[in-house]
Each structure stands twice: as structure tokens, then as C-alpha cells.
Amino acid sequence: MSLDQLNHALVTAGEGVEPQKWMLFLHGILGSGANWRTVARRFVASKPEWGAVLVDLREHGASHGLPPPHTVEAAARDLERLSQNVAGIVGHSFGGKVALEYARSHPLEELFLIDSNPGPRLDARGSEGTVRVIEMLAALPPTFPSRPAFVAHVQSQGHDSAIAQWLAMNLERDGDAFRFGLDVQAIRALLDDYFARDLWSVLEAESSTRFHVILGGKSTVFDQADKERLAAIAARNPNVTVHVVARAGHWVHADAPDELHQLLMNPTA
After folding, report:
1. What is the fold of 8-121+197-265?
2. Closest Cα to residue 214, out of 264, 179, 139, 172?
3. Any idea where the domains of the chain sit in the sequence?
């Protein structure tokens, strides 16, 4: 495979294994490809004909400095630099919408949409916590004397330890200090476009791609009207399936990894 600008890592079933096709794993806002490493390893171990590509989407992880505009469409175009044997995508949250945008013009075998609402949510419904984190990051001091100091600051702004430690993965050394390594304004632009973009039409159009929409049962990203629209699409299109993982919230891969693995293995069961 070749990838010009986006940082990525390849995962296969073992040394010397040559996959027949590749599954992209796309993270959500403020995440990175590494968030999906455990899921991807289990996936390729069970299906060695597949390889996994853990992608850092634009302005995330180590994929820095890509030119604006920072939009869902631009993030999908970045994926076009991958070789032609990309056959599937697992996309969570923001990454799910990037996957839908990509699938609009690139038919796939499988697309797994993980708690990612295809429609616009101008009120950020279900993602209020993410908006608060972005607002906090936009007001960060320029540097911190240590990683623990950064974690303590994030917690002092009302965020829990898990969020603080997760965000600390983006710290970079700046001399004797540390600074937050992501361009928060670029991230905000990506998030704004994610909330504004309407991609229901990709699910509703005739396509050879098999779409598997996986919802966290405790998540509020989909309201009742969204769920009814999904059910109606699935009822008339056999290439669209909907699954609810009852005990999971928005972070399905963290809350219910075994259930998600089974869906990746057999999504039509």
C-alpha cells in the first residue's frame, strides 16, 4: 500500500501474511488510528485474508499540516491516496461520516458505521461533551511544565481522568515543557462541518456497498426520528443492516469490544 500524507499503520495476521484486501479503521474527533489497534488485531486474526489500516485522519495523530479547507469531504479525499485494494471501512463517529463521504464515489464491500449519525446535528445533540472539550482546548495555556500538570488542568476544567489521560496522548515536547500538539482551530472546523453535513443520501441510494450501522444502546447520537429513518432504509434495502449494542454508549469499541468483534465477523447474523 502507499499513502502520501496521512500517517498510518498496517496490521496483518502475522509476519509474511499478504492480505487480499484492506479494511480502513477511521477514528473520531481528537482520536487517532491507534485507538483501534486492539479491535483491528482481533479482526485480522479471525479474517487473515484482510489487512487493517489504522489511519490518522487529517490534523489528528501524526497527520499534521494538511491544507484547508478542513472538511469531511477533504478528509475523504485524503483517503484516495490509498491503493486500490481498499475493500472496507470501519468508521466511528466523525470517521463514520468520512467513510460515508468516501463511499459516495468509491464502492466498497463493507462499511461499518459505528455510532455515527449520517445527518446534520446543528445543535450538536449527543456530542455536547465533545464540544465542551474543544472549547476547553481552545483556551489552553501555551505550554505545561509536565504531563501531570496538563492532566490536572484538564480535570480542573470539569473533565474526568480518563478524558484527561486520553487527551495527554497528544502532548508534544516544547523545550523543557509540553504543549498540546493538535491544531485546535482545524479540529473545530472539521467538527463544525461534521455537524452540518447531511449524508443520509449515501445510505438511501442504490449501492453495491453493504452498510452495517451499529448504534450504542446508551448513546444519544441518534434520536427516535433518526432510528425510525434507519429502520425504514433497512426495510427496503437489504444492503443496509442496523444493530444496537445495548450496553454500549458512544464508544462502542471500548464499552462492548466482544459484541463489536462479533458484528465485524458476521454483520448479517
Report:
1. Rossmann fold (3.40.50)
2. 264
3. 8-121+197-265, 128-187
pLDDT number for residue 1: 45
pTM of structure: 0.94
Query: Which one, of 66, 46, 54, lies nearest residue 22 by Cα?
Result: 54
What residues in the chain have per-residue pLDDT under 70? 1-4, 83-84, 269
Beta strands in 102-221 (DSSP E): 110-114, 171-174, 177-180, 210-216
Q: Which residue from 69, 114, 91 is spatially nearest to 213, judged by alpha carbons?
A: 114
Element (H, E) at 10: strand 8-11
Quick: pLDDT tens for 195-235. Answer: 999 999 999 999 999 999 999 999 999 999 999 999 999 99
Beta bridge partners of 90: 25, 112
